Amino acid sequence: MTATKLIALWLTELTSLTIIYGILCFLLPDLELYGYYVEKFGFVLEQDWLDWYTLIVLITAVILNCILIVCIFMLFKKTGSP
User: Fold this and answer.
1) Residue 33 contacts by C-beta under 8 Å, 6 or more apart in sequence?
2) CB neighbours of 82 closer than 8 A, spacing ≥ 6?
3) What is the domain range of residue 13?
4) With bands split at pLDDT 50, 70 and 90, how would you rate the model's confidence at 79?
5) pLDDT tens digit sequence for 31-71
6) What sign has the CA pseudo-torsion 29, 60, 50, 43?
7) Does residue 39 belong to any structural domain of this protein?
8) Which residues cross the membrane (predicted)?
9) Secondary structure of 2-55 in the HEC alphabet?
10) What local confidence, expressed as pLDDT, does residue 80 receive?
């Protein structure tokens, strides 16, 4: 594999991670979840909430991106496409 193909592959994976992260941020609005959490469990510092929220959303996006990459790899491996 040439360097150009590796860079293109890396940028594609980074783009898919960014898209998945954006979709998760859209589907899981932080302020609404923060309000729900405060009502249910009590006060938490907003900065602590945002740190944990961002970490959890990012880890979830990375896991979903890895699953997507593995599924695409298995699809191409099964069909024999390069």
Assistant:
1) 53
2) 76
3) 3-30+49-80
4) confident
5) 898 989 899 988 888 888 899 999 999 999 999 999 999 99
6) positive
7) no
8) 7-29, 49-76
9) CHHHHHHHHHHHHHHHHHHHHHHHHHCCHHHHHHHHHHHHCCCCHHHHHHHHHH
10) 66
Residue type, 60: T
Query: How far is residue 56's CA from residue 21's CA, in Å, rounded to a whole number?
Result: 11
- Whole-model pTM: value is 0.81
- Domain total in the chain: 1
Long-range contact list for 9-16, CB < 8 A, 24+ apart? Answer: 13/65, 13/69, 16/65, 16/68, 16/69
Residue 73 lies in a domain: yes
Residue 38 in domain: no
Q: Is the dihedral of CA 62, 67, 72, 74 positive or negative?
A: positive
Asked if residue 13 belongs to a domain, the reply is yes
